[in-house]
Design brief:
The chain is mostly helical. Among the domains are: 90 residues, no CATH class; 79 residues. It is 67% helix and 2% strand. The chain has a two-stranded antiparallel sheet with strand order 1-2. The relative contact order is 0.05.
Length: 250
């Protein structure tokens, strides 16, 4: 039986294609290869971090869901160093602009802590003293806005200044702020006591002893563990002071 559809749709041999079409196809392929060979190689470039829009704009664009958009911006910002075709290091980021983004995200979600976490643990961990200082100053700025909320991040900054920047004067500045401004019940004594540790590391043993003695005599500290720590610390400081005095006399 004659199959009409088979006749219509069966594959035709290449020989049936007119020569003009064959030549046109080969010429098109050749021209495409030639065009690609003449193009300059594509070099992936990292886009500059643009300034954030106003908080109001983000709230309006999210249909009144600021927390949702803050979480989205958190993810977008942290993934910014991995762009299509380009991978950049944190060293290449504009850190002043970066703090503007962190501020905007915090304004969108005032109860959130994630921007402070990445400021301290991610962007502040690079081996670049100048950019590390920008992050530390930003955390100090936010701490001064709300000490009882952001005390833990300033405590981290004290450690950064002490161990990473080797700047004990800067560490003492931050530790002083902790002991003077972070006075809420949620702030643990170890955070307030960081000033004692920094003074001890600076060799300011007498100043540290006076501070510890004042804390004990104030009767404000009732926690037995904290009192034991301070009592032990003053004994250690007195021992160090004695050794220091003996070494001077020799």
């Amino acid at each position: 039986m004659f199959n009409y559809y088979h006749y219509i749709y069966k594959d035709r041999p290449v020989q049936d294609v007119p020569n003009g079409i064959k030549i046109a196809l080969v010429a098109a392929l050749f021209l495409q290869l030639l065009w690609h060979s003449l193009q300059e190689p594509i070099i992936a470039k990292a886009e500059d971090l643009a300034p954030p829009l106003s908080t109001r704009t983000y709230v309006m664009s999210s249909l009144g869901e600021p927390i949702a958009v803050s979480k989205f911006l958190n993810l977008w910002l942290q993934a910014f160093d991995n762009q299509p075709g380009a991978s950049i290091s944190f060293h290449q980021l504009n850190y002043t602009r970066l703090t503007q983004w962190l501020d905007t995200i915090l304004e969108l979600d005032p109860r959130g802590y994630y921007p402070m976490l990445v400021a301290a643990r991610v962007y502040g961990s690079i081996n670049d003293a100048e950019k590390k200082q920008i992050m530390m100053d930003y955390i100090f700025y936010k701490f001064n806005e709300n000490p009882d909320k952001y005390w833990r991040w300033l405590a981290h900054v004290v450690i950064m200044a002490k161990h990473e920047l080797k700047d004990l004067d800067l560490a003492l500045k931050y530790a002083n702020a902790l002991s003077e401004k972070a006075t809420g019940e949620n702030v643990p004594y170890w955070a307030k006591d960081m000033k004692i540790i920094v003074l001890e590391d600076m060799g300011e043993l007498e100043a540290a002893k006076i501070l510890v003695g004042a804390l004990i005599e104030s009767k404000e500290i009732t926690d037995p563990y904290e009192l034991n720590f301070l009592t032990h610390k003053i004994a250690v400081l007195e021992e160090k002071s004695l050794k220091k005095q003996q070494s001077v006399e020799k």
